[in-house]
Protein: Transposase IS200-like domain-containing protein
Organism: Flavobacterium hydrocarbonoxydans
Amino acid sequence: MKLEVLEKDCYYHIYNRGINGSAIFENDANKTYFLKQLAKYSEDKISIFAYCLMNNHFHLVIRLNTEEKEVTQMFSNLFNSYAKAFNKQSNRTGSLFEKHFRRIKLKDENYLKQLIIYVHLNPKHHLNQDFQNFKYSSYQTYLSNKETKIEREEIINLFGNFDDFVFCHNQKNEFLNETYTFE
């Protein structure tokens, strides 16, 4: 599989999962630690627009603020530090993540908007959980006035305004409710 080249000032969907689909997060403390490590390693290298941490995979929507080599090294450091801590806690050895993190370059603003909604609705897709109250997604960050590293204002403006941001998420959620039956 040829990996997408990362380019400065471009937007990407970054995602990965546990090796063989296994869990990479066993509890809330794991997810909190991953987010802390992400903040630590990503400082000024990327802008984060959305995230969602599921039990066996994660999604990030980012923009590169620096060159590919720095960002690739940043992700390597993040994944290695998290995997070492997870393996120690879980008394396991070996790879935690699939070999290479996946990356898809976003072609336009519409794709960016749809991807942000998709990432935020991930708990609905996989767990039939209410995306609005899912603790390890950036959706609640958009609803909050708390200080954040998420590029909230830029994305709210992309959707037009806050009400349209919420409306688009709810509209897509209603579509999922009508289209899929979860058991």
About this structure: The first helix runs from residue 28 to 42. The beta strands are 11-17, 46-53, 57-64, 102-105. Helices lie at 28-42, 68-90, 109-120, 122-127, 139-143, 152-159, 162-179. The chain has one domain: 11-179.
